[in-house]
Amino acid sequence: MTTIAGLPLHPLLVHAIVVLAPLAALLGILCAVWPAARRRFVWLLLALATVNLALTPLTIEAGEWLYNRAGAHSPILETHEERGETMLYFSIALMVMAIAVAVLHVLSSRSDKPRTAAAVAVAVLAVVVGVSSIVQVVRIGHSGTEAKWGVIAE
């Protein structure tokens, strides 16, 4: 499926990724560093990361369809296409991070022993994956906006 109601599917799906990926990233960081948030939001985090991961390949495929329908490709459109393809790796990383937070939650709830080393490792993972995912969404979006609307004033 490449269109919906006659509109290209890619820009519609992009809006979901632009919301879901940063939301999962920020929620993952919050859950990783704050146990009270983890107890309350861990399953929401897992759901957001899952939906994001499911929509990412569809968004990439719809973008490739749109890219192939365009005639000549500008260098910035090629940059956008190349950066967009990398989002799958960031979505996978967000899913791995969400799973790690969920595993930490389950292990912590089954035992009274503090799991400090695991908590620190998951927090570091969440911060690295979360921040890099947000940065990549911005980079992809910026190049896509530039490709569509021209150079953006700084």
UniProtKB/TrEMBL annotation:
Positions of transmembrane segments: 12-34, 41-60, 87-107, 119-138
DUF2231 domain mapped to chain residues: 6-149
UniProt protein name: DUF2231 domain-containing protein
InterPro entries reported in the protein's UniProt record: DUF2231_TM
Pfam families in UniProt: DUF2231
Swiss-Prot/TrEMBL keywords: Membrane, Transmembrane, Transmembrane helix
KW Membrane (keyword) present: yes
Organism: Mycolicibacterium vanbaalenii
